[in-house]
Amino acid sequence: MKIRVVGIVAVCCVLALLAGCSQPQGGGTAAPAKDAKGGRLFGVSYQTMNNPFFVELNEGMKQVIEAHGDRLVTLDAQFNSLKQKNDISDLVLQGATAIFLNPVNWEGVTGSLVQAKQKNIPVVVVDAPVKDADLVLCQVASDNIEAGRLAARALAEARPESKVVVLHHSVNKACIDRVDGFREEAAKHPGLTILDTQEGKGTTELALPVMRDLLARFPECNAVFPINDPSALGAISAIESAGKLGQVLVVTVDGSKEGVAAIKAGKLLTTSAQFPREIGRISAEKVYEHLDGKPVEKEVKIPVELVTRDNADSFLAGKDKGPAK
Q1: In 3D, which of 150, 145, 142 has the Cα closest to residue 102?
Q2: Residues 55-75: tens digit of each pLDDT
């Protein structure tokens, strides 16, 4: 009986050793995770999914991935850098074939990029670039500087003498570029004066009280540039509450259905439209090109278009087709 027990223990030890040897070692490439049907695992982490823009972007990406018989795990960082770090770490440990990333903080995500690179997992950044571009395969984003320029140009045309406040989200590179583009174009129009720039955080809920405070501090304010449609909707709520609808013009960036509806209602002057499905589709295609051994460009810029009351309906009709060629 004792000999039999020893033999069983020895067999178990050998099996455990073999199992341990099958695990990827530090610095190696983790085996791609597969589902029951054999499809490869892809993961994406967004700064938030509480924004129609990212829902559409995710759909564009998902369509391409599922057409290849693979699957996409979608993760919401909820504007929390630590949660995003942990989510990416989980994807790395699962041996994701590739990771798509929409960073909460364009500088603070570096550690996660290093972790993925150590496991040879390609990362494609979507919508908002990262500081360390050398750590990623590719960055696919709207031409955000031009989006800011379009907003300033439209404001200067509608109201040449504008006293403007800006609602920023300064840890996001896409938003930094939009504000830079807005300032660049505004400098060409002597009548445009930027009174102040405050953090609106890119959400309706947080932009509203900030805009309310700015209206109280700057009674001469007659225009606002929020960096996206959700924060523009928050600003519009504050403007309505102050009884200044029509007196304070709003120009922004996104091109969401909600933003276009606000334009048609006369509450929003313009939005510089992005094409999130196109960003998602191209991002996924770049990963497959890489997996096929093809060279991939480091940066892909998707054109933007100005949406006004004149073209709102035609824009909605062709929204899923991408920017005009």
Answers
A1: 142
A2: 999 999 999 999 999 999 999
Separation between Cα atoms, residue 179 and residue 185, nearest integer Å: 10
Kindly give, in sequence order, each residue whose CB lies less than 8 Å from that of residue 202, ignoring residues fewer than 6 positions away.
Answer: 51, 169, 172, 175, 227, 228, 230, 231
Q: Which residues contact 7 (CB under 8 A, 6 or more apart)?
A: none
Between 14 and 103, the more confident residue is 103
Task: Give the C-alpha separation, 115 to 108, whole Å.
Answer: 13
Q: In this structure, what token pair is assigned to residue 73?
A: 């795990």
Angle, vertex CA 45, rays to CA 282 and CA 83, nearest 5: 165
- Of the pLDDT bands very low, low, confident and very high (cuts 50, 70, 90), residue 323 is low
Q: Is 14 helix (H, G, I), strand (E, B) or coil?
A: helix
Domain 41-141+276-301 indexed as CATH 3.90.980.10: no
Distance CA 305, CA 289 (A): 28
Residue 190 to residue 199: CA distance in whole angstroms: 25
The 10 Å Cβ neighbour count of residue 32 is 17
Superfamily for domain range 144-273: Response regulator (3.40.50.2300)
In the structure encoding, which two tokens stand for residue 78, read together? 């909820």
Residues 198/210, Cβ–Cβ less than 8 Å: yes
Torsion from C-alpha of 181, 142, 167, 257, nearest 10 degrees = 130
Find the angle CA(252)-CA(321)-CA(173) to the nearest 5 degrees.
40
> What span, in angstroms and rounded, lies between the C-alpha atoms of 191 and 162?
6
Residue 288: the pLDDT is: 98
Strand order in the sheet with 299-302: 71-76, 41-46, 98-101, 123-126, 138-142, 299-302
By C-alpha distance, which of 68, 79, 80 is closest to 42? 68
Check for a shared fold between 41-141+276-301 and 144-273. Answer: yes
DSSP assignment of 230-274, as one string? HHHHHHHHHHHHTT-BTTBEEEEEE--HHHHHHHHTTS--EEEE-
Chain CA centroid to CA 239, Å: 27
Q: Where are the domains of the chain?
A: 41-141+276-301, 144-273
Instruction: Give me the residue label for tokens 């990262």.
Output: 130
